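Entry 14. Two folds queued back to back today. First construct below, sequence then structure tokens.
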Amino acid sequence: MTTEQRERKPEWIKIKLTTGENYTEIKNMMRSKTLHTVCEEARCPNIYECWANRTATFMILGDICTRACRFCAVNTGLPTELDLQEPERVAESTEQMGLKHCVVTSVARDDLQDGGAMIFAETVKAIRRRMPFCSVEVLIPDFMGNEDALRVVMDAKPDILNHNVETVERLSDRVRAKAKYDRTLELLRRAKEMQPQIPTKSSIMLGVGEEWDEILQTMDDLRAVGCNILTIGQYLQPTKKHLNVEKYYHPDEFAKLKEEGMKRGFSHVESGPLVRSSYHAHEQVQSASKADAAQQV
């Protein structure tokens, strides 16, 4: 397969450009409060849709990551930022946007002893003080396997604990920097042990060379550690320096994977070419809640 063929996007990979009043307002708000969003830093294809609908995923702990994953567009280097006032600014923005569901993620901060866990916890608490009816989802790094750091986040009791496996076990070391497949599963298992009532969530991106049976095995591995919610999306190469796209999956294949995930017992599976971990996050929570309630009846 040539590079030209790999980069040729199929017709179903389409991004709707919507830069209206809501988009401009949210962009200006982020700038005024010196906040970062993963929507911008990771070049998310859904930024126009989400911002137009007044939803965003806040990225705390700065915009420089200590890791250099081969799929990710976030800047890599030695971070200099640790802003203890950041949690309150995120909470203020959440209040101004009138969010019902807030997603908070971060760069990896391996330079910090707790990996930034304290800032995550303080952000959850700050949002709850201002917006008690807003659910809070945290999408965390692996904290290099630091169980105490994970406990700090779980003790803040986010409504959803999200940590992405990203790819299948065979490709994990090639695709991710420092992160380990087994460590991801162990984090999700420990999170369930610490707070069994908090749903856990993970994400798989497709198109980096995985086989179909490996995707299904990854689903089984996630269910084995109690993961409740799964998102599956197409990898899109951010720059020529990043991993090539080995395959563009058809929407029908994503639909089939959704069926496979639901058969395995996930409360909710969001699967599609442009799906990202935080895409339609509020709808995912509602759907999963209904599914869990139905199982308990």
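Second construct, same run, same settings:
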Amino acid sequence: MKVWKYGDDINTDMLFPGKYTYSCGTAEEIIPHLFEDLDPDFSKAVSSGDLLFVGKNFGCGSSREQPVLGLRAVGVAAIIGKGFARIFYRAAINQGLVLVECPEAVDAYEPGDKVSFDLEGGTVKVGDGVFTFPRLPPEILAIRDAGGLLPYTIDKLREGR
């Protein structure tokens, strides 16, 4: 697992350049352009299970879904942040991408620190520090497990609920 750290006010253009909005529709087309202008190595080096530590207002800007779709597709385990833009937060729920607000963990992390993340237990360990966050509601976890809101909803309709 790798840990990636980014600062405050990272907008959707930094996550996925707007010039590709209408030419990249699938996850496979989106992934090579993730963080293209902010961190050109990201899309080549990110792996399933990686964590992102981010500052406040992460995902601000336009309501583009491509960044969330791409991050989910590469298998980012969670984005641990100081705060998220509302529209990005909603898009993450829709795609089943886990976002956790834990500013203390973000502040504590320095490159090279050993990190572990326990979503169900509500903890992030950074070096010798253990930081807690409110556990996500079971519905949000179920949406994540289903692969997003649409598959979750379809499953519920099929179950007759």
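Quick look at the second one. The helical segments are 12-15, 27-30, 42-45, 66-73, 86-95, 103-108, 138-146, 149-159. The radius of gyration is 15 Å.
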